[in-house]
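Before a computer can learn anything about folding, someone has to put a protein's shape into writing. The three-dimensional part falls to structure tokens, numbers that each stand for a local backbone shape. The protein below has been through that process, and both of its lines are reproduced in full.
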Amino acid sequence: MAEPSLAGVWAKIARADEHFQLLEREVAAFFDHDPQPIGTSVGYFDPESGWHLVYGIVKESPPPRLGVILGDLVHNVRSALDHLVWQLVLWNGQTPTEGRRGTAFPAFPFAMSKNAWKGAKKGPLREVADHHRAVIQKVQPYKGRTGLKTPSHSSSTTSRTSTNTESSTRRSWSAPVLLDT
């Protein structure tokens, strides 16, 4: 049996950090020109939801490269979590096994409901020790955040405008940004 090691986990986290630093530089370069590519609306308080709302207005689409870098960052974080769970199985004295249809087990679950969590305990986390599973359960999305409220009108609007003096089409999107108070 292989010896447990966090070397792969730390390598993935280090790579994600490299992507994060690159993303910070690329985002700064995108915002560091005139006119500003993104603006904000005037904020207001929504008494029904209890949230202060501010809308972001995109005047210029960010370059696709930003999405690619962000995707690489997220992939490395996700891989680090999967590597961690694999190592937890080894620390539990078990041998990681394959799941149905050749899917690799174990894997870090993202349970959106309590039922999904129950399935994860029997599936991708079945070889992980109970005390480690308890820690993983604490960070599951279905656990939510106490007292989280969402605005009643969180719709996005998209508008597209073009003028005779401009040769290109300008797009403007807005979506609510929720600020917890």
